[in-house]
Amino acid sequence: MRDKPLSRARGNRALAEALDEAGLDIRACFQCGRCSSGCPVAPFMDVLPMEMIRLSAMGQEDVLLDSHTIWLCASCQTCSTRCPNAIDIAGVSDHLRERALAQGRRPAEPQVAAFHHSFLRSVRRWGRTYELGMLGFYKLRARDLFGDLGLGLAMIRRGKLHLFPRRSRAKRQVRRMFQKRRTLVSRTPGGENP
């Protein structure tokens, strides 16, 4: 966390208000640390989940939106499950990622953002994930074309990756969900679609 003392007076009240509007109540946190101690990704984070909640309460938006933590969070829900006050900590992380993108900030972990974008693109297009296509698009965005080539070929040989996409019966419903999200985001100032 930061070495400088935090002050609510210097913080951005808009962040706490946006979290409240999203139904993410962070005021109940009493910093027990259960979220951070159970997080499987915590050793790689620059701001622990417990600190993320405290910084959110203090309105330290710049620190949070520029952190690696919000991009490294696997959204596994371990932190939220362990919280004795039922704070949706993984939801806060998701909200902060969306907020960072909406403000046009460069992700601290560009490869993670590229993977998210590739995954959502695949689901939007095919109604489900088409792994080979998704990975190809991700590798192009991440500029790492041959990093896992051997593993990919082995997975194709074993039938773990399909050369062609499988059809989804719910393709239209999935597209409608994306369209609804696009409409909501377009109504939000500074909104951005995945």
Explain what this protein looks like in three dimensions:
- This protein has 11 helices and no strands.
- The protein folds into 2 domains: 95 residues, Orthogonal Bundle (Fumarate Reductase Iron-sulfur Protein, Chain B, domain 2), CATH 1.10.1060.10; 78 residues, no CATH class.
- It has 194 residues and is an all-alpha fold.
- The chain is globular and about 50 Å long.
- 55% of the residues lie in helices and 0% in strands.
- Helix 8 runs antiparallel to helix 9 and helix 8 packs across helix 11.
- The longest helix has 17 residues.
- It starts with 12 loop residues before the first helix and ends in a 7-residue tail after the last helix.
The span between the termini is: 29 Å
CATH class of the largest domain: Mainly Alpha
Query: Which structural class is indicated by helix and strand composition?
Result: mainly alpha
Largest sheet: none
Instruction: Please provide the count of β strands.
Output: 0
Low-confidence stretches: none
Shape: globular
> What's the name of the CATH homologous superfamily of the largest domain?
Alpha-helical ferredoxin
Oligomer: single chain
Strand content: under 5%
Q: Predict the CATH topology of the largest domain.
A: Fumarate Reductase Iron-sulfur Protein, Chain B, domain 2
The appropriate CATH architecture of the largest domain is Orthogonal Bundle
Secondary structure tally, helices: 11
Query: What's the mean pLDDT score?
Result: 86
Work out the radius of gyration: 19 Å
Q: What is the H-and-E element order? A: HHHHHHHHHHH
Helix content percent band? 40-55%
Number of structurally distinct domains: 2
